[in-house]
Amino acid sequence: MIEIICSGIGGQGVLVAGMVLADIAMEDGKNVSWYPSYGFEMRGGAANCEVKIGDEDLQSPYCYEPDILLTMSESAIDTFEERLKPGGVLLVNSSLVSPDRKYRDDIKVIKVPATDIANELNNHRGTNIIMLGALAGASDIYDVDHVRAGMNHYFDKKGKNNPKNVAAFDAGAQAAIEQL
Amino acid sequence: MAKVLMKGNEALAESCLRAGCRFFSGYPITPQTEILEYLCWRMDEVGGDCVQTESELAGVNMLLGAAAGGMRALTTTAGPGFSLKQEGISYLCGSDLPAVIVDVQRIGCALGDIFMGQGDYWQLTRGGGHGDYRTIVLAPESVQESVDLAYGAFDLAEKYRHPVLIATDATIGQMIEPVELPPMIEHDVDTYDWALKPREEGEPQRAIWNRYWDWEDGGRKYPAYCLEKYNKMEAEEQRWECVQTEDAEIVMVAYGTSARVAKSAIAIARKEGIKLGLLRPITLWPFPQKAFDELEAGGKVKAILDVERNILGQMKDDIVLATGNRIPVEFYGEYWDNMNEFKIVEYVKEMLGRY
Predict the structure, then answer these.
(1) Looking at this predicted complex, what is its ipTM?
(2) Ordered alpha helix ranges (H), B175-315
(3) Does the beta-carbon distance from B261 to A32 stay under 8 Å?
């Protein structure tokens, strides 16, 4: 079983990043649950989703010991870093986090300047896709080509696949792989 | 049919349509609102009516009207809105009308809060309306089970000419899981003789009203009729799931999302050699007495742990009734925080020291 928490600020697309992972899991024939924060959340407020994936019955939908933590804001790290499993992967959007920040020393921290990369690619709304690429590049659970194809399949099914997605995804994956 | 990813609330709504429901009336309230939102556009596609009413009261009373006309009708709500439905539920029971009412449970009294909770067990199973009545209460634990139970709920309601309640919760309503949807069926509003319809010349007037007025003896036989109906529900409709109860020394009793976390707790406990099991009521009423009888006959259980997302352990009353105080019953609850399998296991370890 794999547990993933995607967390950031409402409007950054963390829920979509989690949905792409959930869709890939379903298409792979795995069991999956995706549980969002809801209610008071809004653009600019905290937003997160908890994704569980496995071959077995998943039981509880809540993620208390995530294997991967995809964060897109400093507050997301504040909230969830302590939950990460020892040896787990913490993906940081370093554009929005102080370079002096200290992290746990028993986890793998991958820093990707996703907001800056999105600006360079003239794709301001692609920050979540860059982080998704970074997740695929950083985690040995995922294969980059498989996640890229799954992402395209997810957006194609919705009937709106932005051609800029692939460039954003690959830039995120590359940035993560360089740090391994 | 291929599985699709759907949110619990939307999947439940779609399943009701597929069961032939062509009328919805309700009012938005978190965490239920996606049902109304979904049916606002989807009901048009299947030729039904979706009404966003001015209040929950109007929602349940329009539901009564649609049910009286023979339609498969649905209303949904949460927490405070469920309180407002109670009078209508009493009227549906008093009028022998089948309908489906969903409570996507949240937390707390009064406004409470929009967070995940199982705040309404007593109101679901005891009823907040006036008079003698019971309602079948179905409690799914997943998006797929929400679909399956909602699909069958209309048949169940019509079998007894009685409203059926579905108790989901915020987690099941908000989460997305792969789901297989059942086929679309159309329901004929003229299926049942009792339904109101335009009167031909010379036909007697039909009315849906307090059912005991239908008896020529002035309703003297109505109590026996009622008892027979509720006894039949208790005899035929108890549903439950047992997980590793065969050798369990501690058996958790939990429904909905709490049951899923309880299953995770079993996986942890069993690795540590703790004999932990789960009895999951799928019908909150009728409460699965048969399951408790089997559990007690097994003779292995030292104590029962009621696991619920509320403060007072509302279901504990029913567990004590079902076990006749012959097995100790404790309660483990969470209120602000999500139910946590690790904390449950810690509690179970403490319990084992007591029994």
Answers:
(1) 0.95
(2) 222-236, 256-271, 289-298
(3) no
